[in-house]
Design goal:
Layout lengths: L1 H4 L14 H10 L2 H4 L5 H9 L16 H21 L3 E5 L5 H10 L2 E6 L2 H39 L30 H4 L5 H9 L7 H18 L24 H16 L7 E6 L8 H4 L6 E9 L1 H12 L3 E9 L25 H5 L6 H7 L3 H5 L6 H16 L20 H11 L9 H11 L3 H31 L4 E8 L10 E7 L4
Parallel strand pairs: 1-2, 1-4, 2-3, 4-5
Antiparallel strand pairs: 5-7, 6-7
Helix pairs in contact: 2-20, 4-9, 5-6, 7-10, 15-20, 17-19
Length: about 525
């Protein structure tokens, strides 16, 4: 058995690690990539849209860094397909930050998006960023259209000439009634993995698809792209509009009545289901499991709830809100910051009804399962980045470890609510690091001379390699702890009666974006 295979990793008596190689193999064996519980992204997209490939020419790296561009490009395509499959136009972006995902969903995919963030600074930043993005959107769209033509021409060169004159009917229905996602009420994770049940659906649909005339498809795609992108220029709210030329109205000179009329006209356009209904509204609110979305969004309708790297408990609460609110028909959530999760059994607190970040599912609650902060901190590490040579910051970790010894031995402090933060990058030496850190911790550094600080450094310097080895073991174990947290969330969804389908999907390249797994779920049609 697997237990027998890995039984010699630790000494039975001392519980110490005795076989590092076997430890690494065991960690790999229990990682998400090896367990076979994830649904491939391609299968999900295939099941949602059939063979209706929606190529777009806008590239997010025009206005985002490489990491954010990769995340937004992949996730926005998935969210758009979910929204189309469910037949809805409204998206709620939880923990939206500065609105990278929200604004792109609105402008590129013609969706009505409410971005909710607890930070008013982020909300204001989102407004300003959206204003600037809109100002330059014509240029992005123009380049995107050129890219689209280039892609079509490349495909044309690869096809036989005869295929270009064929034009047959397309079955536009993304999923047939017999194998619809919405009818998978009794489907379990075993049915979906590894073939996930989507493979057969996509294959049956693709067999029905036939060749489409290249020229007609190109014209159709370009027209759709142009309409979607240019539609945003006239329907954004007044405070997100940038005047593009002197021939247009000067918004700064409008009277209050005209401003009100303009806002009302914009809101009416927003309410429309037409192709010009794309809007993005950044809002400030702290979201908890008890949040009433209708109090924040007055025109709440059937919608998709999304979260791109929702921090700590916010990821768990996103799923709770999804299951509790009938208007939310689907969810796509990528969590992060596992170390900030609240744990029901960490401090043995007697509050079973509280909305804890972990565990969520009844199975782990019944077992009283607890990770602990150290394990959750380890889950945040990025094994794939280390594997390609992006090594851990050993020196800064060593500084922090020696500082811990100093504050315990000199000051008698074992716990503090204060944090050292990124002091290492602002320090010129170990002595400078210790003094700056003590000030942040509100500890008196005057009784600690420089030579005393350096004595600690010299005392532990020879153990730096030992610390590095320890941290590498934590990195190796990280995926196993992340598995536990993510499967807890998936099991929570599996326990709900109103979910048609739920799964874990690897969305991102883990080197670019280490927190790369999304929890996705669709509700039953009647829910």
């Amino acid at each position: 058995t697997d237990d027998d295979t890995f039984s010699n990793v630790f000494c039975e008596n001392s519980k110490k690690l005795i076989n590092v190689h076997l430890f690494a193999l065991a960690a790999k064996y229990y990682s998400l990539s090896n367990l076979g519980v994830c649904t491939p992204l391609g299968d999900v997209l295939g099941a949602l849209r059939g063979d209706n490939q929606g190529t777009t020419g806008i590239k997010t790296d025009e206005f985002m860094n490489n990491k954010k561009s990769h995340e937004v490009q992949v996730m926005s395509e998935l969210v758009d397909n979910i929204a189309n499959y469910c037949g809805i136009k409204q998206v709620i972006d939880i923990g939206s930050g500065k609105g990278y995902l929200s604004s792109f969903l609105s402008m590129q995919y013609n969706l009505k998006v409410y971005g909710i963030d607890s930070s008013n600074t982020n909300t204001n930043g989102a407004h300003e960023r959206n204003r600037k993005l809109k100002k330059h959107w014509r240029a992005y769209q123009s380049r995107g259209r050129a890219n689209l033509k280039s892609q079509r021409l490349e495909k044309a060169n690869d096809r036989p000439v005869e295929s270009e004159i064929k034009c047959k009917a397309i079955n536009e229905k993304p999923l047939n009634n017999d194998s619809s996602l919405q009818s998978q009420d009794q489907v379990t994770i075993q049915d979906l993995v590894p073939s996930c049940g989507f493979t057969e659906i996509a294959a049956s649909e693709s067999s029905k698809q036939t060749e489409v005339d290249l020229v007609a498809q190109t014209q159709s795609d370009e027209s759709k792209l142009s309409e979607e992108v240019l539609g945003i220029l006239n329907v954004l709210p007044a405070d997100a509009v940038e005047v593009l030329s002197s021939s247009q109205c000067n918004c700064g000179e409008l009277c209050e009545e005209e401003r009100t009329q303009r806002k009302m006209a914009s809101l009416k356009a927003k309410a429309s289901k037409s192709s010009e209904s794309n809007l993005y509204f950044p809002l400030t609110s702290c979201i908890t499991a008890e949040t009433e979305l209708s109090d924040i969004i007055t025109d709440l309708e059937d919608c998709v709830m999304v979260g791109l790297h929702t921090c700590g408990d916010l990821a768990a609460n996103t799923l709770r809100i999804f299951t509790a609110k009938p208007e939310i028909k689907a969810v796509c959530s990528v969590g992060c910051c596992y170390h900030l999760l609240s744990e029901q059994f960490e401090n043995q607190e007697d509050c079973p009804e509280a909305a804890w970040g972990f565990p969520m599912c009844q199975y782990l609650k019944d077992k009283g399962w607890c990770c602990g902060r150290n394990a959750r901190m380890s889950a945040c590490l990025a094994l794939e980045r280390v594997a390609v040579g992006q090594m851990l910051p050993t020196e800064s970790l060593f500084y922090r470890a020696v500082l811990q010894v100093i504050i315990e031995e000199i000051y008698g402090v074992t716990k503090s609510d204060r944090h050292v933060g990124k002091t290492f990058s602002k320090s010129s030496s170990f002595v400078d690091y210790v003094r700056k850190s003590l000030k942040k911790l509100e500890l008196d550094d005057s009784k600690l001379p420089d030579n005393c600080i350096m004595d600690y450094y010299e005392k532990y310097k020879h153990r730096m390699n030992e610390l590095e080895a320890f941290n590498m073991l934590k990195v190796v174990l990280a995926p196993c702890i992340e598995v536990l947290i993510l499967l807890d969330r998936l099991c929570y969804l599996k326990e709900q009666d109103n979910i048609a389908w739920s799964g874990l999907v690897k969305l991102f390249d883990p080197v670019k974006s280490p927190r790369c797994y999304a929890v996705i779920a669709l509700k039953k049609q009647s829910c």
